[in-house]
UniProtKB/TrEMBL annotation:
<dbReference type="Pfam" id="PF02902">
    <property type="entry name" value="Peptidase_C48"/>
</dbReference>
<dbReference type="InterPro" id="IPR003653">
    <property type="entry name" value="Peptidase_C48_C"/>
</dbReference>
<keyword id="KW-0788">Thiol protease</keyword>
<dbReference type="GO" id="GO:0008234">
    <property type="term" value="F:cysteine-type peptidase activity"/>
</dbReference>
<feature type="domain" description="Ubiquitin-like protease family profile">
    <location>
        <begin position="60"/>
        <end position="234"/>
    </location>
</feature>
<keyword id="KW-0378">Hydrolase</keyword>
<keyword id="KW-0645">Protease</keyword>
<dbReference type="GO" id="GO:0016926">
    <property type="term" value="P:protein desumoylation"/>
</dbReference>
<dbReference type="GO" id="GO:0006508">
    <property type="term" value="P:proteolysis"/>
</dbReference>
<comment type="similarity">
    <text>Belongs to the peptidase C48 family.</text>
</comment>
<dbReference type="InterPro" id="IPR038765">
    <property type="entry name" value="Papain-like_cys_pep_sf"/>
</dbReference>
<protein>
    <recommendedName>
        <fullName>Ubiquitin-like protease family profile domain-containing protein</fullName>
    </recommendedName>
</protein>
């Protein structure tokens, strides 16, 4: 293990985390590629390594109770989000998960860089998202979390019963979630193109992107928590068939849930045995 890898591994929640992860998977990277990763993730997940005191890492196995993230005091970074999400995903039955798919929380940000776009699209292709009814795409941009849900992408774009659509859930409507739409539409078009789908560009660009009114965060730190809870509730209540012509799913309303329910959800999530990262 190289000295540079050991240095990067101290930074598990930022751009350095990504470099270390790729290094561990024996993916070759040029100096230019490392600089590009740094440029992407300094924008979405800045490094706070030098902000806090460091201690030698214990060789003892850590109990999850000792590493609970202070979710009410600190915004979830990508590593914390991924830890919570993996625990959440594991809590659902295989039968339930069979209808759903998800993309890594960093892939959308990675896609925005031209140099890494082809790799991201190749990763997505391996996910076989067109075989799923719903696909979660957590997005972190401008230091803010939101959730894109791709609905029925395997169906015909001209279907009247179950046509593809996109839902963008944002707990901070004042941040103008629609500003993501141009990049999301390009992202979706490239996914269709990479899959070799027969749909025309004209039809793909007409896929509806809806921004329903959902409960709003009370401070500037809760957006990641809300995205995880959106995922949890959507998996619990998503209908078998959903068409925008009939309106939003029945449960998706401004009063969908209250702060007490969100806090209870995270207490429950914290109680799940820690997964090995």
């Amino acid at each position: 293990m190289t000295e540079s890898y050991l240095d990067y591994s101290k930074h598990r929640s930022c751009w350095r985390h990504m470099v270390a992860h790729l290094h561990a998977q024996k993916k070759r990277m040029t100096k230019r590629e490392i600089e590009e990763i740094k440029e992407i993730f300094e924008f979405t997940t800045p490094c706070f390594s030098n902000t806090f005191p460091h201690h030698e890492r214990s060789k003892r196995r850590t109990n999850c109770k000792n590493i609970i993230i202070h979710k009410e005091k600190k915004k979830l970074d990508t590593a914390a989000f991924e830890w919570y999400f993996r625990n959440l995903w594991k809590s659902f039955s295989d039968d339930k998960k069979s209808s759903f798919g998800y993309l890594d929380c960093l892939w959308f940000s990675f896609y925005l860089k031209t140099s890494s776009r082809e790799k991201v699209l190749n990763w997505i292709k391996k996910k076989r998202i067109f075989s799923k009814k719903y696909v979660f795409v957590p997005i972190v941009c401008w230091n803010h979390w939101s959730l894109l849900i791709l609905c029925h992408f395997g169906e015909s774009l001209e279907s009247k019963i179950r046509a593809p659509c996109m839902l963008l859930l944002d707990s901070l409507q004042m941040a103008n979630p629609k500003r993501l739409e141009p990049n999301i539409r390009k992202f979706v078009f490239d996914i269709y193109k990479e899959e070799g789908r027969p749909e025309s560009k004209q039809l793909i660009t007409k896929i509806p992107m809806l921004v329903p009114k959902v409960p709003q965060q009370r401070n500037g730190e809760e957006c990641g928590n809300f995205v995880l809870y959106f995922i949890n509730l959507f998996m619990d209540g998503a209908p078998e068939n959903f068409s925008v012509s009939e309106g939003y799913p029945y449960f998706m309303k401004k009063n969908w849930f209250g702060p007490e329910a969100l806090e209870h959800f995270f207490r429950k999530l914290d109680s799940i045995p820690k997964l090995d990262l």
